[in-house]
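Reopening this ticket.

The earlier resolution said the output was attached, but the attachment link was broken on my side. Pasting everything inline this time so it's all in one place.
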Amino acid sequence: QLQLVESGGGLVQPGGSLRLSCLASGFSLDYTAIGWFRQAPGKERDWVSCISSSGGKTNLADSAKGRFTISRDNAKNTVYLQMNSLKSEDSGVYYCAAVRAPPGGRNCFVMANRYHYWGQGTQVTVSS
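Inline output:
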């Protein structure tokens, strides 16, 4: 059974950092592209970042550039989202999502409907 489990969320003050993890089970991340999305209360789910199956292609939303970094450790079957200089507007539930991809692939996707598997989410709250 294919599963994604996010962790690493929490309460942090503005300017602080968090590292989110997305652990995959039931399939190898060598064959998947991964995306991170954020959903704030009453708002749509917004794309934050993505990484290709090879790890060679990454992409960040404009709001995340210069502050967030996405990376993957395929040996641990885990994708990370390092978030620095956090702002209140970064608050929300963060979801990781996966889509099958060829090994060595260099594509990742912005649209949520391109992803077939989703985790349960981890809450991030940025507040003083």
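Reporter confirms the inline version is readable. The chain has a mean pLDDT of 95. The two ends are 40 Å apart (CA to CA).
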